[in-house]
């Protein structure tokens, strides 16, 4: 009995410091791996959490309203829903506004919009087992409402003895409106109307040495509705020429004579000078 105990305690099967306590274990105490079933469960949760998306249809956009439409839940492959949320905001009012609609609705008109402003619209389908979860949502729709065009930028192209020519740049339009023409004003009075492809005007009925102020107003259209820009900043130009001097009586230096005098004539043409006065 004594010999057998000594043989077991002195053999190679005895425990040493640093070895695992469980015989046959191959798992390192410092390095552990995540089980495959845990990884699969995590990936499955990510797929389940993803909310399907759909595209919104823009029916129309005016200067004060936006009309959007979306498919029925059945066409989207969604079961019963509790209600529909329509959310919107704008570049000038970033705070999100929303309204709740019955589950049967498939369109909505957003009113009281600002003209010529970019708006952002989204639709959420709420329901499911929890009755508060978003089961489907639309992609964000970016819409610009219709508004008056910007005023054109006017400049003087030339001042000649036979007329003054002004020109202007094509202004920006907003939303679905299209540029349809220009109105030209001289000294705040309407003088001419032009098609959208013309960007210049020559005034031929002026008087020498007289100053004129030119303004242009742009007009856009959506359907039967027209939108007018504000008038451009007045651009002033003086008609070239020589203004006749005013003749007045003057003292004569001899008898039986009448004396007259006049000032130098007014010149408005660039580079012109008076050569003679008769």
UniProtKB/TrEMBL annotation:
Alphabetical keyword list: Chromatin regulator
GO cellular component: Rpd3L-Expanded complex; Set3 complex
Region spans: Disordered: 1-45
Highest taxon above the source species: Eukaryota
GO biological process: chromatin organization; regulation of DNA-templated transcription
Biased composition (Basic residues): 21-34
The keyword Metal-binding appears for this protein: no
Keyword Methyltransferase: no
Domain Fibronectin type-III residues, every copy: 148-245
PANTHER family linked: UPSET, ISOFORM A (PTHR46462:SF3)
Record protein name field: Uncharacterized protein LOC109476878
Organism lineage string: Eukaryota, Metazoa, Chordata, Cephalochordata, Leptocardii
């Amino acid at each position: 009995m004594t010999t057998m105990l000594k043989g077991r305690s002195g053999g190679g099967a005895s425990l040493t410091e640093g070895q695992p306590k469980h015989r046959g274990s191959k798992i390192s105490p410092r390095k552990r791996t995540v089980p495959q079933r845990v990884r699969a469960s995590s990936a499955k949760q990510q797929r389940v959490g993803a909310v399907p998306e759909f595209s919104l249809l823009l029916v129309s956009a005016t200067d004060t309203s936006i009309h959007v439409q979306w498919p029925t839940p059945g066409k989207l492959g969604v079961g019963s829903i509790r209600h529909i949320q329509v959310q919107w905001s704008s570049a000038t009012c970033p705070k999100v506004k929303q309204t709740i609609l019955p589950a049967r609705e498939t369109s909505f008109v957003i009113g009281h919009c600002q003209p010529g402003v970019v708006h952002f619209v989204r639709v959420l389908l709420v329901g499911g087992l929890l009755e508060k979860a978003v089961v489907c949502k639309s992609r964000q729709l970016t819409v610009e409402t219709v508004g008056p065009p910007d005023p054109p930028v006017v400049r003087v192209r030339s001042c000649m003895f036979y007329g003054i020519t002004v020109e202007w740049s094509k202004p920006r339009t907003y939303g679905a409106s299209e540029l349809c023409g220009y109105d030209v004003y001289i000294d705040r009075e309407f003088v001419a109307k032009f098609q959208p492809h013309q960007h210049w005007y020559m005034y031929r009925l002026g008087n020498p040495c007289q100053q004129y102020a030119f303004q242009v107003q742009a007009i856009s259209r959506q359907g039967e509705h027209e939108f007018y820009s504000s008038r451009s900043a007045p651009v002033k130009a003086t008609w070239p020429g020589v203004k006749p001097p005013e003749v007045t009586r003057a003292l004569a230096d001899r008898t039986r004579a009448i004396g007259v005098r006049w000032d130098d004539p007014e010149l408005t043409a660039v580079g012109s000078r008076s050569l003679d006065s008769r």
